[in-house]
């Protein structure tokens, strides 16, 4: 399963979590089932078999660090508040922040580029630029953000 597909399904799952107040397991199951049956974005091409554990890892990691991620993002949202963002942009930013700050298996520039592409696809005309602006500022401070005091919550 490509990471892009896992990210897209993770963002959709995070959106489901926030909209419907369901568990992460239920949100992921719903999104994966929908992707497998509707093939809206040609997600179920033969070479793109959907691996729920990859989606689950992204969703649960983001949820586990949500409070810390929101705090970080708030510092980079000049003139914006987290609760005033579109739900789609908010989930994309949360997932990207999780991958950049709490994981080291993906280059940060790749995370930013993937987030921009998802914002263009799922968000408004301005979402790509907005996500790029926020994550572009965050990536400059990444070494500081990854220090032990920024480590995952216990």
From TrEMBL:
GO terms for molecular function: RNA binding. Pfam families: NusB (PF01029). Involved in transcription antitermination. Required for transcription of ribosomal RNA (rRNA) genes. Binds specifically to the boxA antiterminator sequence of the ribosomal RNA (rrn) operons. The keyword Magnesium does not apply. PANTHER family: ANTITERMINATION NUSB DOMAIN-CONTAINING PROTEIN (PTHR11078:SF3), N UTILIZATION SUBSTANCE PROTEIN B-RELATED (PTHR11078). This is Transcription antitermination protein NusB. Residues 6-140 form the NusB/RsmB/TIM44 domain. It comes from the Bacteria. GO terms for cellular component: cytosol. Transmembrane segments: none annotated. GO terms for biological process: DNA-templated transcription termination; transcription antitermination. It comes from Paenibacillus mucilaginosus 3016. Keywords: RNA-binding, Transcription, Transcription antitermination, Transcription regulation. The lineage of its organism: Bacteria, Bacillati, Bacillota, Bacilli, Bacillales. Belongs to the NusB family.
